[in-house]
Amino acid sequence: MGGMSGSTDRIFIARLAGTRVFDPLGDQVGRIRDAVIVYRSTMRRRPKVIGFVVEVPGRRRVFVPIGRVTSIDVGAVITTGLVNMRRFAKRATETLVMADLLDQRLRIREDGSPVVVEDVGIEQQRNRDWEVARLFVRRVSEQRTAFSALRRRGETLQLDWSEVDHPVDAAESQSATQLIAAYQETKPADLADVLRELDQKRRLEVVRELDDERLADVLEELPEDDAVEVLNAVGLERSATLLETMQPDDAADILGELSDERAEQLLQAMEPDDAEDVRTLLAYDEDTAGGLMTTEPIILSPETSIAEALAHVRRQELPAAVAAAVFVCRQPLETPSGKFLGIVHIQEMLRHPPHESIGTLLDTEVEPLPPEAPIGEVAALLAAYNLVSVPITDEGEHLVGVVTVDDVLDALLPEDWRDNRETSRTEVSA
């Protein structure tokens, strides 16, 4: 490799995660998401770092061999040569530092006390190889005595790889605290990609530790069969909570994959109001506007001020496509609403004084569609009017839901589109 120009002596992977990756000309080609290591013939020998998992545009995760990396630093990683753009798939002999090694429970060889891995330090050797050299760990108590538990709980140490035994028990449940912390700022779709790449045991360990709101966001981004696997693993009570937290259309998509008996069991466990929204959507054919729509758009009365409308739009939990417009109706302001009057786009609101009423800004050119409208008709309306959402009304002109562009795309793309995002390019100069 010819040496690491500008690299530091020791790099800690959890801190390196998210670091931007550049080509020699200074153009960014992606971000570091993990390091790939292989164990040696004996566990006392330091594992070898063979490369990095790099996220490139389009959220593809690709493998970059360590031999193509010319500089590693917390601020930037520099690569050279061609990067294979096929989706990274871990081989049986490989271990991912972030996904597999972080949070793993080990024992200090000297006294047998248990520790949990919080970070992993790699160093370049004289022969230019990179190896896992140090482990940043935290002691965990086995409650042997009250005194030892009090004295040792939470203490952090930095140990050489050879100072620990690996692992304590391969069948033992592994914490996911550090892995979740490393992806705290990532979008739900990115975390969904991470979950899909983990083996089943590790995936469920992460699922157990994610809070309900974050996990609900991730479930909305997973293929339905993967989401069903998660629900089957977390039990009836938590499944009901997750489905209540999700957008009703996404919850309906998941329940639609289950047997009628199992779906009804989950609906019975949900709050009645949330369950009713999902039942409404399940009544429609999945290939129609009704099957795609969400029943929770922003619905406001025409007297609402722009300032108040923008306050509704600013709610953090709203998906971007839902927050792009408000739907103006007569009372009641829940689906099915009073008479639908029109749309007000957020950009239009920003052009007017905050005290004005949104009823003066109505876009009435967009004709709402009935729930029975096929997906193609929804897509045509979105394209014709440059919209990100389409109102769906019943025969009485009551708003019953809204179809957003992301759900239309999801329905029109092949079922395996998440797996095939890398097919548009085969390699990139990096």
TrEMBL record:
**Keywords assigned by UniProt, alphabetized:** CBS domain
* Pfam families named among the record's database cross-references: CBS (PF00571), MgtE_N (PF03448), SH3_actinomycetes (PF26205)
Residue ranges constituting the CBS domain according to the UniProt record: 293-361, 362-420
InterPro entries per UniProt? CBS_dom, CBS_dom_sf, Mg_transptr_MgtE_intracell_dom, MgtE_N_sf, MgtE_transporter, SH3_actinomycetes
What PANTHER family does the annotation carry? Answer: MAGNESIUM TRANSPORTER MGTE
For this entry, the protein name equals CBS domain-containing protein
UniProt source species: Brevibacterium salitolerans
